Structure formats: C-alpha cells, structure tokens
Amino acid sequence: MSNSTTYDIDKYLKQNVHVLPQNNQLRALHTIIRNRQVSREDFVFYSSRIIRLLIEAGLNLLPFEPLEVETPVGNTYNGLQFASKLCGVPIIRAGESMESELRAVCPAIRIGKILIQRDKVTKLPHYYYSNLPEDIHERHILMLEPMLATGGSAKVAIQLLLDKGVQEDKIIFVNFITVPEGIHAVCSKYPKIKIVTSSIEEELNENAFMIPGIGDFGDRYFGTVN
C-alpha cells in the first residue's frame, strides 16, 4: 500500500527546490548506493561524492559580493567573496554524515547541532537537544539532513532556527533525497526556504520509506543496519 495523495510541486521546483543535474555520472553513483548488496565502505565513499556535489550547490545559492585581488603577474582579477557568515547545522544523527564534506570545503565554518528523532511507531518527530552559536541569528544556515520524507523533522528544525532569530530566507536545506510529500510539507509552511537535493523519489510507502529509495541512510552510513 503506497501513499495515494498527489502533490503538485511544480511551483516549488521553480523557486525553492534545486535538484542536481540528472546526468549519467550522478545516476551511476545513485545506482551504486541504492544497491542493497553494496558494501558499507562503498556506500560511504560514493554517497560522500554526492554529498560534496550537494554542498557545493548549496554554497552557490549564498550571496556574494565583489572582491578585487592582484594576480601573481601583477594584474587585477575582479572576483567574488562570500557576503555573509555561515553556519552548518546537521540534524543528528544522519545529518552528521554530511558534516565532513562541509568541513572539507569550508574548514573554518561554525557547526551547530540539533537532535530530533522520529518515533518508529507514530512516525512523529521529537525534539531533544540543540547547541547553536550565540550569533546564529546573524548567519546563513546550511541545514544538513539526508532524508526529507514526511517533512516532520525538517519542520521542527526549521522552526527552532526561526525561533533563534534566523531569517527564513537565510536557510538552505541540503538534502540527499526527498519526495513530493516532503517538499510540499516544508515549502508550503516555509515558502522562503531553499532546498538542494540529488533526487526526488516517486512516493512514500506505508512505513514512510521513500520509493524506490535507499533505505535508512543513517543506518547504512554508520553501519547500524539490522
């Protein structure tokens, strides 16, 4: 039994949701990690390659300002620099799988943490803990969470950031895979949020797993699959 509700997400795809180019390389990487027989080593390696692409795409959505520098040959290069302070906020635990790739491209970035866990029976999210920089309200946020399914956990995390003074249009949700239901749930409530993802799946099944999906990303990445 699958989710029969149809969600029209075309309007969000035009302004909120940024999907990585669906080229052959990305499809090949997805083929490896979606295979239930893949080793954990390969799952981590190839999913990390996709995460790096997502991080780079998320950074490209941030504001830039002009910066001139002198080149080694004495000429001027009219370049750009990030126009604001950044903060990465992984949602524990699965979101921490994306943290190393963020640190690889932004070594000095501040990192906050939010712990939200979904009840395996009710599927409802429960907030437990957060630790965020005191000046979080002054920063652009890269919120890290691989799975956007029902959107419950994402909405709790976003609301927490807003309650801390973060501006809605300064939150970029870096997400591995999602479904129309998750996109609708987040973007209909927070229309200024930007989402970067590598795949929009077909639907959710009766257990709130994405179809065709990749299973539980955190369990597969950290090696806690039963």
UniProtKB/TrEMBL annotation:
<dbReference type="InterPro" id="IPR000836">
    <property type="entry name" value="PRTase_dom"/>
</dbReference>
<comment type="function">
    <text>Catalyzes the conversion of uracil and 5-phospho-alpha-D-ribose 1-diphosphate (PRPP) to UMP and diphosphate.</text>
</comment>
<comment type="similarity">
    <text>Belongs to the UPRTase family.</text>
</comment>
<keyword id="KW-0328">Glycosyltransferase</keyword>
<keyword id="KW-0342">GTP-binding</keyword>
<comment type="pathway">
    <text>Pyrimidine metabolism; UMP biosynthesis via salvage pathway; UMP from uracil: step 1/1.</text>
</comment>
<dbReference type="Pfam" id="PF14681">
    <property type="entry name" value="UPRTase"/>
</dbReference>
<dbReference type="GO" id="GO:0004845">
    <property type="term" value="F:uracil phosphoribosyltransferase activity"/>
</dbReference>
<dbReference type="InterPro" id="IPR029057">
    <property type="entry name" value="PRTase-like"/>
</dbReference>
<keyword id="KW-0021">Allosteric enzyme</keyword>
<feature type="domain" description="Phosphoribosyltransferase">
    <location>
        <begin position="21"/>
        <end position="224"/>
    </location>
</feature>
<keyword id="KW-0547">Nucleotide-binding</keyword>
<protein>
    <recommendedName>
        <fullName>Uracil phosphoribosyltransferase</fullName>
        <ecNumber>2.4.2.9</ecNumber>
    </recommendedName>
</protein>
<keyword id="KW-0808">Transferase</keyword>
<dbReference type="GO" id="GO:0005525">
    <property type="term" value="F:GTP binding"/>
</dbReference>
